[in-house]
């Protein structure tokens, strides 16, 4: 027989914390706490986006007053073959980036979360590209892949004439490779944090049941990294849709217009052709496409229906 004893507060003392009643929800912070972030977003994100939306219905060369021209910019974009090609090229590079970076990032992140010998040193070396700017990375790879003095020129038996950027397939392959080399460390770091948050008791229980490392990876690690995968993929999609500096330095949209992505085409229209109205319309297309794809990923993955705070639940 057990007895239940309750503590009584001593006379003259006050209780500083209340025990939440069963089913009662925790009180959320008020809007005042979010006010600084809301003001920052309003000033530096929403207001510029609104101005770009207004400019998309005008004709403006950057000098003088913008002139309202209705839907002329949008109609011209719908019939512009370069614009349509740039959208497909952007989607292709984005898809290639997700397909190549995701498995490599997961494997590296899970490995870096372990306790292997020299793991910290090797991880630090591999994360060096993450410290470099996209411009610096593009300049370096432009020199390495130079068709006259670069590595391909010395290995003609492997690369043919050595001009990897002279064909559409070669240029897209180079852009994909450079993206993998630079941004995989970032996503590997994200997966490393997610893998370290997985309770070790799950692996211990699986080991007792006789599961090896491969089965533990596919039946424990991957399901538990579900939320992390979704977050990483959304970052990859947004980054792929806004790729600009790598294309500007490595291919300049060539050969021809084969690697002209939408962001680079916006730059050409606005800052080279001084058609800021058309450039603004292209910018809005990028925003809409990135938003729709991100929402689709969240919906299809079921991320918006998750209520648990634990990975994969």
What do these coordinates show?
The structure is a single chain. The protein is mainly alpha-helical. A two-stranded antiparallel sheet has the order 1-2. A hairpin with a 7-residue loop joins strand 1 and strand 2. The N terminus is likely disordered.
What attributes characterize this protein structure?
313 residues, mainly alpha, 15 helices, 2 strands, 64% helix, globular
Measured distance between first and last alpha carbons: 39 Å
Q: What is the approximate shape?
A: globular
* Unreliable parts: 1-9, 12-20
Strand tally is: 2
Number of helical segments? 15
Q: Note the beta-strand portion.
A: under 5%
SSE arrangement:
Elements: H1 35-55, E1 58-59, E2 67-68, H2 72-78, H3 81-112, H4 119-126, H5 128-131, H6 134-144, H7 151-154, H8 156-159, H9 168-196, H10 200-208, H11 213-224, H12 226-241, H13 245-250, H14 262-272, H15 276-301
Antiparallel strand pairs: 1-2
In short:
The protein has 313 residues and is an all-alpha fold. It has helices spanning 35-55, 72-78, 81-112, 119-126, 128-131, 134-144, 151-154, 156-159, 168-196, 200-208, 213-224, 226-241, 245-250, 262-272, 276-301; strands spanning 58-59, 67-68. The protein has 15 helices and two strands.
